[in-house]
Amino acid sequence: MTEAIRFEDKVVIVTGAGGGLGRAHALAFARHGARVVVNDLGGSKAGEGASGTAAQQVVDEIVQAGGTAVANTDSVTDGEKIVQQAMDTFGRVDVVVNNAGILRDKTFHKMDDADWDLVYRVHVEGAYKVTRAAWTHLREQAYGRVIFTASTSGIYGNFGQSNYGMAKLGLYGLTRTLALEGRKQNILINAIAPTGGTRMTEGLIPPQVFEQLKPELVSPLVVYLASAQCQDTGGLYEVGGGWIGKVRWERSLGVGFDPRAGFEAEDVAAQWSRIGDFTDAAHPADNIEALREMMANLQKYAG
Ligand code: NAI
User: Which of 67, 181, 196, 273 could bridge to 215 as Cys pair (CB 3.0-4.6 Å)?
Assistant: First the structure.
């Protein structure tokens, strides 16, 4: 039988946990024995306003079920305050689930600086601030798990979501580098691209499907990625509706030109179908693997 996943000695911060996916994560962590910091600014879907009730309601639910949690109503852009509350209340932090998010959808020609900046600030700067403040503690205790919430809108693109897509795929870039920097101290970092029926997706997903896409169906992956049992890092997982899959980069075998002789746009055009041919494609896992073909091409034509 698989070993039970427990968090009795662990403190978990879930941002944006006053509703939607974050609430489901917070409840799941509490069920698995974690002490939970339930953070939520309590603003609108578009990131306006604030209210303390969302976070407190989830804390009340956890406590009523016999769990341990504390509410925090700071914005993730003041991430150090959220981490400070974890330290003040529970004396440690082990897991950060960066989940808080907003939407300011607009086609690019209507995008203004305010919509661009606010989406960047909540998703990217917010995740940075919380994780950066926790990082010092995670390194000191040589243990940590961090989860970033990306999106298929970042991975694949989505009409009207240039700001959101930029921010969401940015978090995967952050995941890849922090995975390298954290590994030695047993700090493992993964990203999820979830789909769930929440206020964010209400009206965008057909009602019958919306009902079935329960936020609770995303949380088991998040709890597993945050556990000591999980030893993987740097991953990106699509999850929703009871289904989970892993995403990776794929690159064509490519075409090498003679770098000494030089080549022109016409040579690129002549090889275009081969450049984009994914037969026997490679899946570089790191920078060294990624640069291997280029280095081989240099060597092939070297003096
Ligand atoms: P939601 O709107 O129900 O939850 C987001 C929560 O974040 C809200 O409770 C909100 O008050 C909170 N929040 C917003 N700005 C904050 C700030 N500055 N500081 C602290 N809390 C803040 O939406 P949902 O769907 O639960 O989204 C959770 C995460 O999942 C988001 O990052 C979202 O972008 C991402 N996501 C959701 C998808 C879905 O299908 N629901 C699809 C792809 C990604």
Answer: 196
